[in-house]
Structure formats: structure tokens, C-alpha cells
Amino acid sequence: MWLEYEKNATEWGWMKTNRGLEPLVTTADPAPESLLKTISCRCKKNCGKMCGCRKAGLKCSILCQKCSGETCENTVKIRELLDDDDDFDCREHNIDNPAESKHNIDTPEDENLEISEDETEDVNLAGPSSKRKKTT
């Protein structure tokens, strides 16, 4: 009984044993499977065929001692990361090749940037004249 309500303890995370009620031990994995499979390599360059991560079917990560998952052939490509993100569309942002793009897609402070009409009245336009022009 709990707060004057009849509750069945076995439905609330407890099990009956010879010694009485004991809490259930979790049946879930101790960590996500991707973390349990984390392997890091010590490749000296390029992370080619001998790469421990590649042999395990994984991409290099920040845990790798030499490449840190950034300077090798076995790293997650930007395209693969973007494919996982349902909210971001390269076509919408006119990004054909993210590596050559001038856009930095990892800057969350730019996401909420809005310019009001008052701020667009006086704009310094690039060109041969250094004179400020008004836009309409």
C-alpha cells in the first residue's frame, strides 16, 4: 500500500525472492552499443588497410591517437553526417561540396541571425566606390 492506494510491487521494479522484495537489476546494456564497440587505432599515416578501426568496420574517431578521426582516409565524411541529420538539406543551403563551401554549418550562433529592415537601410556595398549607398 502506498498513499492509501494498493500497488503491486512486482509491477514497479521489484521482484519477490526468498528473502522478500528486492529491486530489479537493469536488463539494459551498460552503454550504447556504438560506445561498447569503440576501438581506437594508432596508425602513423592515412589509416589504410592496416587500420584497427577499419578492420573492425568502424570509422576513426577522436579517440584515435594519431589521426584523431580528422586527418585520415577512414574518417566520417561531412556528407555522411549530413545524411544523418534530417533537419539539414544541402540543396536548401546551396552546398554542393561541403568541403569547398564558404558556409560554416557548425556555427549555431548564426542560425538565429535575423536582420530587420531598419538594419538594412544603410549598407556598405563592395565595389569600386567606397561611398555608402542606401538600399531600398
UniProtKB/TrEMBL annotation:
Protein name (Swiss-Prot/TrEMBL): Tesmin/TSO1-like CXC domain-containing protein
Region annotation Disordered: where it falls in the sequence: 93-136
Record field: compositional bias (Acidic residues): 107-122
Biased composition range(s): Basic and acidic residues: 93-106
